[in-house]
Amino acid sequence: MIPVTVFKDQAVALFGLGGSGLATAEALVAGGARVIAFDDAEASRRKAGEAGILVQDLHDIDWSTIAALVLTPGVPLTHPAPHWSVGLARAAGVEVIGDIELFCRERHAIARRSPFVAITGTNGKSTTTALIAHLLRVAGRDVQLGGNIGTAILSLAPPKSGRVHVVECSSYQIDLAPSLDPNVGVMLNVTPDHLDRHGTMEHYAAVKERLITGVEMGGTCVVGVDDAFSAAMADRAEQAGKYVVRISMKRPLADGIWREGETLIASEGGAERFRLPLGGIGSLRGVHNMQNAAAAYAAARGLGVAPEVIAVAMKRFPGLAHRMEEVGTKGAVLFINDSKGTNADATERALSSFDNIFWIAGGKAKAGGIAPLKPLFPRVRKAYLIGAAAEEFAATLGADVPHEMSGTLDEAVAQAARDAEAAGLGHAVVLLSPACASFDQFANFEVRGEAFRALVKALPGIEAKAEPPAPKAQVEPAPGGHPHGMGMGGPHGSPHGKGHPHGAPHGSPHAAPHGMGHPGKGHPGAG
Predict the structure, then answer these.
(1) Burial annotation 435-459 (CB, 10 A radius, 16+ → b, else e)
(2) Which of 76, 181, 241, 270 has the most CB atoms around its CB within 10 Å?
(3) How far apart are CA 171 and CA 157, in angstroms?
(4) Maximum distance among all alpha carbons in the chain?
(5) Cα 326 from Cα 339, distance rounded (Å)
(6) Which has the closest alpha carbon to 219: 302, 277, 292, 95?
(7) CA distance 453 to 107
(8) Of 194, 257, 195, whose CA–CA distance to 225 is shortest?
(9) Per-residue H/E/C for 159-204
């Protein structure tokens, strides 16, 4: 836990007592704040009360005594309308913040120079966050992983010199974090999403941009430039004097990281500085994962990790559960769990990564269904349709793709496994990528993915793959510094902050062999 001391002896109102909300309340209490919390759900109120949190309807409190309202990210701040607790706070002139903001303020108070990587983007942020943490751990760093990826940020071990916090940030969390100021900020992409909560695409993008705007001077802004919104963010950050590493999967970059086939290339001044082959790494299959890898490479370089270390660590990345997860093989048939593919855009990335696909799709349909995926239908040998969307998807597939109305996941797995094996192909893929929400048959996409994994592993003759580790609460490492005795190096880990912001004797741009440093202007040696 990170005790939040910045509100010691002050009254703080909190609305939302779900997982992160309860963790936030406990962190505030541990830091000496007087917390008054509420939630619309009676079960959440009861659980908080059992944990010793004072629960009271925020309609009934004296707002003139309140220092701040801490809002859980799931509660509307602006759209479609501010939550009633936000209205009460604003009427009293009380600031409204979230748990990421509390972390930022506590970091300033106790370990201002501790390294902090923040990651956002419409797609790919969880994989990128997990990959950055993995690269840093392989490099011997003391890493805490949390935020939107699953572990509440205030449940992590506290900031201290040399400890890296790698934090996934949703747009909701950024909206509640005005002091967000990472050493390394990653902005992957912006496509339409969550407009019910942000009103317009422009507002949604502007909220995302705050993560890049907040990167401290001398830090590293990593920005995907394959969409217009993000490309403009990179330009504005550079004009503001920030160090920007651009990444692109669509075109070569004279300065930045870009894709050539299955290889990433880091360039500076038009010259190639480092090549990072990714072919054959199952957990990073597909162009979308190459973008994630490029961003993770740039973030790790921003903290002084040598390119050679990154290259080795990439090959060891286990991936994330339910995201293009390799569950097992049976002969020439590979079984892939992409239950996180909850809309057509996400499923497009999976379908683009394979051919000879036996596709399990369906659930609670999203707007537009699977019509946008028609250009990828030639990759699909047969589809197996489940859930409420089955009839709609069957109509879209029509005569273009053979399909069965499987109805349930267990039927679909059995049928797809049978057909893929009988096809006698040199390679085939049974792919669960539903392009749908799960709520018609499952509690969430994780439960759906776990069911798929269990069904596949129960098939006779399956060679199961190791399950990717799920993000979980971190524990305070034992005293004695970094694992294996490997120090951070450089100001992001040094208690004195000496030298160039990106310079570090442990794999720094200025000390790296063969001139392989940061891929960007003004930094000798890209890589």
Answers:
(1) bbbbeebbeebbebbbbbbebbeeb
(2) 181
(3) 24
(4) 73
(5) 12
(6) 302
(7) 40
(8) 257
(9) CCCCEEEEEECCHHHHHCCCCCCCCEEEECCCCCCCHHHHCCHHHH
pLDDT at 499 over 90: no
**How many angstroms separate the CA atoms of 460 and 396, rounded?**
33
* Separation between Cα atoms, residue 306 and residue 87, nearest integer Å: 49
Q: What angle in degrees, to the nearest 10, is found between the helix axes of 287-302 and 307-315? A: 140
Residue range 42-66, pLDDT digits in tens = 999 999 999 999 999 999 999 999 9
C-alpha of 228 from chain center? 21
Taking the C-alpha atoms of residue 484 and residue 478, their distance in angstroms, rounded to an integer, is 12
pLDDT digits (tens, 9 = 90+) for 243-294: 999 999 999 999 999 999 999 999 999 999 999 999 999 899 999 999 999 9
3-state secondary structure of 333: strand
CB 17, CB 74: distance < 8 Å: no
Task: State the Cα–Cα distance between residues 517 and 523, nearest whole angstrom.
Answer: 7
Q: Give pTM, 2 decimals.
A: 0.82
DSSP result, 376-391: GGGGEEEEEEESTTHH
Helix (H, G, I), strand (E, B) or coil at 127: helix
Beta strands in 271-426 (DSSP E): 271-277, 325-330, 333-337, 357-362, 364-365, 380-386, 403-407
Beta carbons of 159 and 195 less than 8 angstroms apart: no
Q: What is the pLDDT of residues 123-156, one digit of tens each?
A: 889 999 999 999 999 999 999 999 989 899 999 9
DSSP secondary structure, 206-259, as one string: HHHHHHHHTSPTTSEEEEE-SSHHHHHHHHHHHHTT-EEEEEESSS--SSEEEE
Whole-angstrom distance, CA of residue 26 vs CA of residue 28? 5
- The C-alpha angle with vertex 526 and arms to 524 and 527, in degrees rounded to 5, equals 140
Query: SS in 3 state form for 415-456?
Result: HHHHHHHHCCCCCEEEEECCCEECCCCCCCHHHHHHHHHHHH
Geometric angle at alpha carbon 33, from 78 and 112, rounded to 5°: 80
CB 428 within 8 A of CB 332: yes
Residue identified by tokens 């399909």 is 403
Q: What angle do CA 75, 76, 82 make, to 5 degrees?
A: 130
**Which amino acid is it at 412?**
A
Which two structure tokens, joined as six digits, stand for 421?
Answer: 């094996």
C-alpha closest to that of 266 among 515, 482, 493: 515
**% of the chain exceeding 90 in pLDDT:** 77
